[in-house]
Amino acid sequence: MHTLGASDKVRAGLGAPLYPIGFAEPERQPRYPQLAAEIMAGRRPLSEQDFEMPQGLRDVVVGPATALEIRWTRP
Questions:
Q1: Within 10 A of 40 (CB to CB), how many other CB atoms are there?
Q2: What pTM did the predictor assign?
């Protein structure tokens, strides 16, 4: 996705997904745990402090910010 123009959606040095752009379902209530990982965040948020790597591609989504950056959607 980087080669298509997508940026990382994680906090530098921590690897924690950025809210809201690094969450697969930022509007989810309750917010945690997320059911999937945003592809450019690379981790599924379980709580504010805990996150895990997805098992495979079926466990990731392309979020709205990433879709815009790679030109899958328009502003």
A1: 23
A2: 0.90
Ranges of residues in the chain with a pLDDT under 50 are none
Which three-class secondary structure state does DSSP give residue 23?
strand
Structure tokens at 58: 């079926």
Q: Tens digit of pLDDT for each residue in 10-20? A: 998 888 999 99
What spatial distance separates the first Cα and last Cα of the chain, rounded to whole Å?
19
**Of 66, 16, 14, residue with least CA distance to 40:** 66
Tokens of 49: 């402090």
- Please report the pLDDT score of residue 15 as a whole number: 87
Nearest alpha-carbon partner for 42 in 28, 73, 27, 21:
21
